[in-house]
Write a structure and sequence with these properties.
- The protein is mainly alpha-helical.
- The protein has one domain.
- Helices cover 76% and strands 0% of the residues.
- It is elongated and about 55 Å long.
Length: 70
């Protein structure tokens, strides 16, 4: 349901830009949104991996870089 809603919104946005402005602007906006989403996903996954690794080592995420074991 969430994925379908996001696809509908993005298709509507690109369609409106395509019709009202130009296809180049529509593709540019779509590319920027995809790049932003990909960057956010990568940062989220790196954060989750850091937290999982530090918790397996018995460390708090805040002190994962320190030599202190909690």
């Amino acid at each position: 349901m969430v994925n379908d809603t996001a696809k509908f919104i993005s298709s509507t946005l690109v369609g409106v830009l395509w019709t009202a402005v130009s296809p180049v602007i529509a593709f540019t906006v779509a590319a920027l949104l995809m790049s932003t989403g990909t960057s956010a996903l990568i940062r989220f996954l790196e954060s989750e991996q850091r937290i999982a690794t530090s918790s397996r080592l018995g460390q708090c995420p805040e002190t994962a870089g320190d030599d202190v074991v909690v």
